[in-house]
Specification:
The protein is mainly alpha-helical. The chain has 7 helices and no strands. Helices cover 70% and strands 0% of the residues. It comes from Vitrella brassicaformis.
């Protein structure tokens, strides 16, 4: 299903870019639970192929870059994975590092958005170090 969703979105982006962008924005706005499920699949999947498709779909959905809240959530997942020994990592974590590069968008955030970034970091990443 993840593969079909990704392919459908890619075809739509090629055939009718304006409509596809509206479709993508609508999906992101109304399917927050689905996005959370994709993040869970990336981390918990025992099948690397399924995790790879979840990563690929997120990359299409968030092209050119994810919103700040999602980038912070991705950083949070990465911090959690650092606490687990490499031989105990779920298979999906391998594909996760591709998405992590998108989380680096935090470094290029405009100054006026940093209050949002700080609040999100406090809620997600810093809580893992307590």
């Amino acid at each position: 299903r993840l593969y079909l969703m990704r392919c459908g979105l890619l075809v739509a982006l090629e055939l009718a870019p304006a409509a596809a962008i509206e479709l993508r924005n609508s999906f992101l706005h109304t399917h927050k639970a689905t996005i959370r499920q994709l993040l869970d699949i990336i981390v918990e999947s025992a099948q690397p192929g399924v995790a790879f498709e979840a990563v690929a779909l997120l990359r299409v959905l968030y092209k050119p870059s994810p919103p700040i809240a999602v980038a912070v959530e991705l950083c949070s997942i990465f911090v959690e994975s650092l606490k687990v020994p490499a031989d105990e990592q779920p298979a999906g974590v391998e594909g996760f590092f591709t998405v992590l590069f998108n989380a680096a968008q935090l470094w290029s955030t405009r100054e006026e958005e940093w209050s949002v970034v700080r609040a999100a970091l406090s809620a997600h990443v810093y809580s893992h170090f307590g």
